[in-house]
Amino acid sequence: MTERSYNSLLSTGRIAGLELSNRVFLPAMDMNLCVEGEISDGEIAHYTARAAGGTAMVITGTGAVAWPVGATSRHQPAFSDDRFIPGIRRLADSVHAAGGRLCMQLCHHGKTASVDTADGRPQLVPSLLEGGADMSALRDNPMDELMRLATATHGKKATYKVADEDDLAWVVDQFAAAARRVKAAGVDAIEIHAAHGYLLSSFLSRTYNKRDDRWGGSIENRARLTCEVVRAVKATVGREYPVIVRVNGHEYGAADGLTAAETAEAAAMIQAAGADAIHVSANAHNPFADFTDGPLPNTVAAYREHTKTIKRAVTIPVVAVGRMLPEVADEMIAAGECDFVSMGRQLLADPDLVNKIRAGERRSVRPCINCYVCVEQNFFDGNPKCAVNPALCNEKVAVLTPIARAQHVVVIGGGPGGMEAARVAATRGAKVTLIEKGGRLGGTMWFSQLTTPANAMLVDWLTHEIERLDVDVLTNTVADVELVASLRPDVVIVATGARRGRPAIPGAEMPHVLTGDGLRAVITGDADADLGSIGGLGRVAVGVGRAIGLLNDADRIRRLSKVWMPVGRRVVVIGGGLVGLELAEYLAERGRLVTVLEEGKHLGLPMAMPRRWTAVRKAAEHGVTLVREATPVSISKVAVRYRVGGDEFEVRGDSVVIASEVCADTSFADQLAARGLNVKVVGDAANVGYIEGAMHSAHEVAREL
Ligand SMILES: Cc1cc2nc3c(=O)[nH]c(=O)nc-3n(C[C@H](O)[C@H](O)[C@H](O)COP(=O)(O)O)c2cc1C
Ligand code: SF4
Q1: What is the pLDDT at residue 549?
Q2: pLDDT over threshold 90, residue 520
Q3: Are residues 354 and 483 both part of a single domain?
Q4: What is the DSSP string of 196-254?
Q5: Is 60 exceeded by the pLDDT of residue 602?
Q6: Same domain, 112 and 228
Q7: Is 372 a catalytic residue?
């Protein structure tokens, strides 16, 4: 396959007087690694790694112009005093030495200034609003998470102050003073944050700004504060110094929120005030409901249309963001839809993206799988971690040192844990043999891509990497103790996954009750899975699918299963965790009447928060009946009986899927150890932790061999 050239994406660009080596930016993402506003070594390592990876410009996570006033965290960058300049200069020097450019994002957090609440100050707002956001999604957050959500506010309740003329003059001055410090520290550009519900964007939005003075009403009045800030900042930093303004191209979930057309009008005014570029993001009114629409969308190039609309209204460069992948980014730049792109989570997952595509190694880019694990930590005022990149916020583990002496590493299991362990060990120079009992790599992650298509990218990446690294892969091979011992391994890494059982209730063994493995057989025709339970017609259909190779292609399975699937019309899913919820939505989309019975109080617990909230909402929108605190009692041919509190209920079900009863399983590892082999266990076999747990534990074990 010939590599695409990405000519547009890799071409040089310019904003005001600043030359940029290509069109890729790292957008602002809080790492929360600052110490009382001071830039730390961790922050420097994070941004330097992305600059060294070829990113043209890195934008720091949002910093507070008047810190701690108007701040969202004590761990974000502070710009309120000259004493912060030396730390910022160290960051700028380091990014420059790595060949990149540095931009810092300046903000006043307005109605989300948690530090104001913690310190007993009111939050600054354009207007007082009646009623709060619908927070019912929080019912799926256990108490410890609810307490951690209140970390930044110290659990205090916010109070508000409607900004008066003096406050607004002070805000403008604070931005200008911060800009002076940032420029003095040798930073290359500034981004003014006028998006995501913070102070400037709350003035821009009709939803939050109900004023009838010169700061409210028409879009001209609502954009006045942003324009005044831009004017003051430009007057401070000068014509050639780039000032980018980040705006919401759309406000989701707000009936009278900003639209792209209105933002386009505002963008023209912001340009006239002196801005040098517009960065088009988006926001959601209620983070507990719509966070996966904005600011962290779950679809690729989610804000493309908004960006086009805004691009037509201005002549300065426009930056696009929102799950941008290199292909669509290149296409958009070539078509003149935008001038630069920001890749956020994708550059958290792989800081070296630009260098890799420049070197023709697109398939070696570690993909972001859109799982929201990173941003969940921000809700807790913590440091993001990445499910697929264990080096995020811990850059020292990014460098894989060669293994001291030649070693033969045998890995058992071709799921994410096994493949990651093989990849890391092979990168370090070990001879690696990977044994997989099925006919293809990916394990349960291959299956999960049916409900979560982004997981396919991780299967592809790991498969490509272990091929590239010459890992010896034995598929359709059952690893028994004798076989493994005969390979004379120095180390055996067991990544055989979790054990999926059945609840100990009457009827659980009946043929229409499918465990995870049985369901996998039904949907994918997995050669290694037991088809005994699915009945004659299903067996024939799956056999035909297998024979003609129809079931090796996840897209095709997704399409075909919309037409036919050997699963009854009424399905009861026992277990409302990650697998149960996603499966329920998948089945409901295919016309099944689905009930999810979850024994615990909360649904979707293994999912990172914003994704969990969205998954619960979407399942309900698809008509799935969700029952919390439901203990299954018995299963008959046509129904499942369950108990909630002291009462017993029955729900009809022609098929029952067990998505609970998942536990770690070291039995094979124990047998190998008993034979005297040096055994390590990773992934769900050691501890059920899904993709994140598998990738992290495998990386750790293989990097310490
Ligand atoms: C962990 C994390 C922290 C973020 N913090 C900020 C921030 O400080 N300022 C900001 O404007 N956007 C922030 N964002 C939003 C990103 O800049 C970006 O717009 C968003 O992630 C969508 O881009 P992506 O789909 O490429 O990730 C954050 C995103 C993530 C994942
Ligand atoms: S944690 Fe998940 S969403 Fe965040 S960057 Fe990593 S893979 Fe992407």
Answers
A1: 55
A2: no
A3: no
A4: TTSHHHHHH-TTT----STTSSSHHHHTHHHHHHHHHHHHHH-TTS-EEEEEEEEEET-
A5: yes
A6: yes
A7: no
Strands 647-652 and 639-644: antiparallel
Q: What was the pLDDT predicted at 450?
A: 82
Question: How many of the other CB atoms lie within 10 Å of CB of 259?
Answer: 16
Q: Is residue 526 part of a domain?
A: no
Is 120 inside a domain boundary?
yes
Q: Whose CA is nearest to atom 29 of ligand 1?
A: 29
Spatial CA neighbour of 56 closest among 106, 16, 98 = 98
In a domain, 95, yes or no: yes
Residue 573 sits in a domain whose CATH number is 3.50.50.60
- Identify the domain containing residue 690 by its residue range: 403-498+665-703
547 pLDDT more than 90: no
Q: How far apart are CA 704 and CA 255, in angstroms?
A: 53
- Residue 658 sits in the same domain as residue 682: no
Residue 173: which CATH number?
3.20.20.70
The answer on 475 and 389 residing in a single domain is no
So what's the pLDDT on residue 528? 46
446 is a domain residue? yes
Residue 225 CA, ligand 2 centroid: distance in Å = 34
- The length of the chain in residues reads 705
Residues 26 and 84 in one domain: yes
The residue to mutate among 346, 386, 612, having the most atoms of ligand 2 within 8 angstroms of its beta carbon, is 386
How buried is residue 437: exposed, middle or buried, by Cβ count under 10 Å (0-12/13-18/19+)?
middle
Q: Lowest-pLDDT range, 151-155, 310-314, 509-513, 697-701?
A: 151-155
Quickly list H helices, 121-164: 143-149
CA-based nearest residue to 600, from 632, 568, 552: 632
Ligand 2 atom 4, closest CA: 374
Q: What is the pLDDT of residue 369?
A: 96
**Both 353 and 473 in a single domain?**
no
Same domain (yes/no): 390, 358: yes
Count of alpha carbons within 13 Å of 11, Cβ hemisphere only? Answer: 12
Mean pLDDT of 172-180: 98
**Is 408 in the same domain as 391?**
no
Q: Cβ-count burial of 606 within 10 angstroms (0-12 exposed, 13-18 middle, 19+ buried)? A: middle
Q: How far is the CA of 29 from the centre of ligand 1 (A)?
A: 5
- pLDDT value at residue 563: 72
**Based on the structure, what is the number of domains in the chain?**
3
| pLDDT tens readout for residues 611-668 | 999 999 999 999 999 999 999 999 999 999 999 999 999 999 999 999 988 899 999 9
Catalytic residue among 198, 303, 642, 690: 198
Alpha-carbon span 411 to 492, nearest angstrom: 6
Which residues fall within 8 angstroms of residue 10, CB to CB, at 6 or more apart?
22, 23, 354, 357, 358
In CATH, what number is assigned to the domain containing residue 697? 3.40.50.720
Report how far ligand 2's centroid is from the alpha carbon of 108 (Å): 27
Indicate the pLDDT class of residue 533, thresholds 50, 70 and 90. Answer: very low
pLDDT for residue 28: 98
Residue 133 pLDDT greater than 80, yes or no? no
Nearest CA to ligand 2 atom 7: 368
pLDDT tens per residue, range 435-452: 999 988 998 888 888 888
Q: What angle do CA 297, 307, 243 make, to 5 degrees?
A: 100
- Any idea what DSSP says for residue 38? B
3-state secondary structure of 37: coil
